[in-house]
Amino acid sequence: MAEGKRFSAEVHLKDGSNDWIVFVHGFGGSARTWKNQTEFFSKHYNLLVLEMHKEKVHGELELDKVCRLIAGTLEHHNIEKAHFMGFSFSSLICLRFAVLYPEKVSSLILGGGIIKFNLRTKFLLYLAITFKRWINYMILYRFFAYIILPRSNHKRSRSIFVTEAKKLGYDEFCRWVDLIPQTNDSLTWLDELDDDIQVLYVSGDEDHLFLKDTLRYSKRISNSRVEIIDNCGHVCSIEQYDKFNDIVLRYLRSVFA
User: This protein's superkingdom (predicted)?
Assistant: First the structure.
């Protein structure tokens, strides 16, 4: 990281393409959690795959600071504008980035999207913040992984995220847990989202914690739509990656042809 002004990132270039997709992984994730997307979309677009946990950010994490680091990463790679693909918690980071830097955003594609925390998710977050100093962070992470992804068909995606989270370390885990409430204290900033920015949510119909609120609160975003994958949990980008990729590619080709 150059002077703490950007994140590490993987770059995949497609000959003849001027279009970019920026991948922003979820909490505890990494570039590896986008493997099925990078292999597929690298045939069609230039890709910038962020590694937000790879190198530690100096000082406390703040939502707008994370967005500034993403902007610095785009500047470093000479990317003026891109489609942004976020997942789960990072969908809120992408939305905030689009509010702060609308000129850099062509569209937002949000897998397992989160908009508003309900009472259950607020309670789970409270448990994480309260017990992070007392319980090994991987025990907490595994617990929440099972709560979010409880079914047998969720096992593979659950396992991938638990494996990646082991690389976090305790201090990094705590810093990102503390960041989460900043994204959801108030949704008033969503009203500042540019009406010209298209937003696609892709969720699994078994996303029991977040889907209902995504359907409800996405209506506040003027140019948004929600696509739902049957028999699929929260991590639809891994569990049914072929359907997820097909939905996203058709969307990009239809809206931005």
Answer: Archaea
